[in-house]
Design brief:
Length: 343
Amino acid sequence: MNTQQVQAKQAPLKYSATRQNGVALIAVLMVIAIVVIIAATMTSRLRLQIQRQQNIQQQTQAFWYAMAAEQFSRVLLTRTVVGEETVNLSQQWAMQGATFPVDNGTIAGDITDLRSCFNLNALQNVSRANASAKAEFSVPQQAFQRLLELKLADLTMPPEYLTARIADWLDEDSLLMTSGSAEEDDYASLVYPYYAANTLMASPSELRVILGITPADYQALAPYVCVIPDNRDLLINLNTLTEETAVLLAALIPQLTEEAAIELINSRPESGFTSLEDITSSSQLADIVLTDDVKNMLVFTSKYFKLTATAAYLESGFVLTSVLEKTNTNKIKVLARRFGDQG
């Protein structure tokens, strides 16, 4: 066999080997690419998982900082309120804007007296025996209507309508209090239907589901109202009212103007009033005769408080709102907790 024949026979073998090497190289590159993609995906997921775990850890730590603020508030109330004849703004619990540094964060909290705001549960109607029984506004309902007239000039409905709608939201029956009120059938006929609670409120945020109330109405009313769980009494502590909330006194006493109510609060002794005689003898109330119902609603102490605690830890934050009660055994217990801002 000559040289040309040998070369002609070996040529296809060289071409076949080169082609196989090219295919193998492509396969290796594809495997490497897949491994790189898998590694990148795993790295991304690992980073996400680590970040998620860090967020959970930070949020948990912020939560426990807020719970620590609640425990501190219970101790503070025990030391400054229990055993005192009055509850007033000169006491240590009433200090506002306190902030405490902690490891990698801060804890801030404010305590307010829930007898210095209007308890919405006081608007609950007494159930009527039949539909023909005439519904009359109670003293708390009349006071609430006056509050709306004094402070919510831009309310999107007449004050008596909103008063009646809240009352019907709270009462146990399905009878309309007035023609402008709303009951179960009205809520059930909405595009997104729901039923009236027919029980006491647990949070003032429930106002947002009252028929016809707007976000602007809610924001305007929020500074003056509160909810005490499972309590329908309207009691106003004259020792914890401020210039901003003095209107509650004017709402409760029709003959008293808001300006006169502010003057009365500004004339209050530093340690607060101690008896009704202290206020009835004032120039603002000297010519006003208080009814027994109103007298019974004016108090100088309180059993219910609200803590708003804000905790920050690294990049996380936590807001805790707690309702605290001073029990008959002089203990401070937690009635309710809410996590997050009230909105």
